[in-house]
Amino acid sequence: MRLSWRFCAALLAPVALGSLLLGCGGDEGPGPTEAQPDPPAPLPALAAAPLTTERTVVATHEVVTMPEQTPNPQVPEDLATFLGAGFGEFEIGPGLTAVDHTLDDSPAPEPARTPALLSRFVHLADTQLADDESPTRLANFDSAGGLTSAAFRPQEGHQCRILHAAVRTINRVHQDKPIGFVVLGGDNADSAQQNELDWFNAVLDGADSVHCDSGVDDDPVAGANNDPKDPFIAEGLDVPWKWVTGNHDILVQGNLRVEGFVEASVGSVVSGGTRNWALPGAPVVEDEVPADERRRVMARTEMVARVHASGDGHGIDEAVLSSGKAHYTFDVEGTPIRWIVLDTAAETGASEGVVRQGDVEGFLRPALDAAQADGKWVILTSHHSSELLGDGTGLGGSAQADAVTTGAFRALVAGYDNVLMHLAGHTHTHRVKVVTADGGKAYWEVETSALVDWPQQIRMFEIWDHGGGQVSIHGIPIDFATDDDPIAAEGRALGILDYTSGWQGDGAGDPAERAIVLWSRMP
Ligand SMILES: [Ca+2]
Ligand SMILES: [Ca+2]
Ligand SMILES: [Ca+2]
Q: CA-CA distance, 316 to 460, in Å (whole number)?
């Protein structure tokens, strides 16, 4: 007979996690095609969702560098060893103290006695929601740290539930501190697949049943509501959300042009290692997998059309639908703030950002001109920060002759005195940078860490008006809450393990660049 998840977990105490990955299903082995008669059950409402200025999740195991990259978390036995040794554990640490930053390194100004809150929003970056059973995955190319550390993550099968936990957390914070909207950081899907995007949209927009499971309908722990391959009820965000495109949304594995992978994505031939949830512990396999039409990789026009068709369309307008590039603007009502959303992902391949002259003349410069003419303060957002703009020649790409350089991009943006901040993702690290350009006005460039990798955070921002043009931007990371959600909790543990075992870098960034107050003077 099968053991229940909870009983398995008890066997593994004190590390009551990873049970399903250990194939803790008893002698019968897993039952990949068993019916799941029980409907998904709703989770109880969250009682609280503390910000990291109140308390933080702190990994307790020291971060190690494994000799010769072994043991490997993608091997179920090794993962069990890691879990048993506490690599997935954490404790609750004290809250972060926000650190002031000024553009010229001068002391921070005195806050106004009664500043006005203009906008509060959440930046949700780099979810990289993956179909971890796809034949086009390249898990065998995973490495400890380094360039290919993202080819496999032990938590990737749990990412739907981690995203759902983030949604629940945002909704709970929203009850206490009303949030205007969520803006994505790009790399929402991991490999440009239709099913990945559909799962992402469903988790954010809400659905009676989201089933993040492709190929065979797996049930690694028999019964409903007890493993990451079971359907679940997606609560959906209580606030609007805005789409931003990342390289992983339009490129296979974030690097490779989709054209060459349409057939492979819906086929059964494994390219470079993918997971099989029908086997104990969901190991990486190289033999054939059952094909699934829903895995088809999408061109960028098809991708934005699916986002447009979900919920309120999330910023995708007619111009975006026809170009496939998510360039658009929106205003925060009742405030001087205008967002300029720039699509920096290159369908020609490579993970770097590419802004072409046509993007500048056809969209960015006119949008900046219009904001200035309308007396707006600009928050520019894109997946890539200016530092990571290139000409598209990275792995899988090709040179784009009209690509704009980092220097030219910064000179353009700094030429407007009404730009408050450029918000980006991609580096999976909390970062703050002052961008300066000759003759221009300095502005903030801020990156938020990835939901998919340690510290698995999102970041809430507030824009405060202190009068006389003095503005402060407050950024507060948020750990997703896992109350009553053991599957999301398991996802957190696996993400911690990926980091502490040396298989993934540290995205927490400099301690001064996590909880932040950025000062700026606006016209
Ligand atoms: Ca499956
Ligand atoms: Ca299933
Ligand atoms: Ca189950």
A: 23
Distance CA(492)–CA(496), nearest Å, equals 6
Q: pLDDT (tens digit, 9 = 90+) per residue, 242-259?
A: 999 999 999 999 999 999
* Residues 6+ positions from 75 with CB-CB distance below 8 Å: 283
Cis peptide before 107 (omega within 30 of 0): no
444 strand-pairing partners: 421, 434
**Distance from CA of residue 335 to its chain's centroid?**
28
pTM of the model: 0.94
Q: Can you name the residues that pair with 373 across neighbouring β-strands?
A: none
Q: What is the pLDDT of residues 298-332, one digit of tens each?
A: 999 999 999 999 999 999 999 999 999 999 999 99
How remote is the CA of residue 290 from the centroid of ligand 1, in Å? 9
Rounded to the nearest whole angstrom, what is the distance from the C-alpha of residue 232 to the centroid of ligand 3?
10
Length of the chain: 523
Residue 75's CB: how many other CB atoms inside 10 A? Answer: 15
Spacing, Cα 204 to ligand 2 middle (Å):
20
Q: Tell me, in angstroms, the distance from the centre of ligand 1 to residue 22's CA.
A: 17
